[in-house]
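Design request, tokens follow.
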């Protein structure tokens, strides 16, 4: 019974692995699509990863979100408002700056951007409140950031270039935890171990039973 349950769990993890790989493939394909202009009223959580392009201009205010990026180390994600030609304002994740460059003036003269829609899920009850005086945020909280910057709660992760050498563009990529192969190997290994232990126990019981019968005969 135990072996069967463990094998079922291993098989379930293999099916989950196939599903996760298909999901990653579909998201990667969606991210790589040709960017297009999407009316902001048509954007919602179902627009996640959608490639878009807009024309307008960057505004001066910005938010710095604590972030770490290999091989640069600690630094910040730079979130800046972008005013579309329609007059609507969205947020744009420009990318990463090193901690030492936090107070440097970032040049954003571009009037056309391309990137992907992203609704981050980084905030929970343990996330500290932002330090507004030092402009240090601890997560990309769309509701709070849009209120602070006076924008719509819509974010675009930039994929096009910015004319500032201090900015490291962090293009969007599928970021799913995919440990299902490891889990399946664990379950099947436990099933094999259980099987051998059961066989060993049966052999011992049989041998003990034979010894008892032999003593009775003697």
């Amino acid at each position: 019974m135990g072996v069967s349950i463990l094998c079922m769990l291993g098989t379930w993890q293999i099916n989950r692995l196939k599903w996760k790989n298909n999901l990653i493939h579909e998201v990667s394909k969606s991210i790589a699509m040709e960017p297009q202009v999407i009316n902001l009223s048509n954007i919602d959580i179902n627009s996640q990863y959608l490639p878009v392009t807009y024309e307008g201009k960057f505004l001066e205010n910005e938010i710095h979100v604590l972030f770490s990026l290999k091989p640069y180390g600690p630094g910040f994600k730079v979130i800046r408002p972008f005013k579309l030609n329609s007059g609507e304002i969205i947020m744009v994740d420009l990318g990463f700056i090193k901690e030492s460059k936090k107070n440097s003036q970032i040049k954003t003269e571009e009037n056309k951007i391309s990137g992907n829609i992203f609704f981050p899920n980084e905030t929970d009850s343990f996330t500290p409140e932002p330090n507004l005086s030092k402009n240090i945020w601890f997560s990309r909280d769309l509701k709070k950031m849009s209120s602070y910057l006076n924008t719509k709660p819509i974010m675009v992760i930039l994929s096009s270039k910015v004319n500032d050498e201090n900015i490291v563009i962090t293009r969007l990529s599928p970021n799913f935890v995919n440990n299902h192969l490891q889990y399946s190997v664990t379950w099947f290994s436990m099933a094999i171990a259980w099987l051998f232990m059961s066989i060993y126990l049966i052999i011992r019981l049989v041998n003990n039973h034979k010894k008892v019968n032999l003593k009775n005969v003697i």
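Comment from the thread starter after seeing the answer: thanks! The chain has a mean pLDDT of 83.
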